[in-house]
Amino acid sequence: MNKTELIEHISTKADLSKADAGRALEAFIGAVKTTLKKKGTVTLVGFGTFAVTERAARTGRNPRTGEAIKIKKAKVPKFRPGKALKEAVN
Questions:
Q1: How far apart are CA 18 and CA 4, in angstroms?
Q2: Report field, pTM of the whole predicted structure over 0.85
Q3: Second label for 34, Cα 20 to 30 Å away, from 12, 51, 63, 65?
């Protein structure tokens, strides 16, 4: 499912126009981005938790040359599914 299909689904299920559903989805995505940028977490009970973790700096290898390269530390967004979502999938 891509973003357009998700907006159509939200529009149908919530009885909203596609424009309203699109704005609602954009608002949700914006809220998650803003919270993660501030190193916070977003928890949706039954769905899951969005959080940011830090990946340490490390040494890697260039696959073409085999040369050792340094990989900088990075902040990485993570999603941890909730119990209800896990049960719905299985």
A1: 9
A2: no
A3: 12
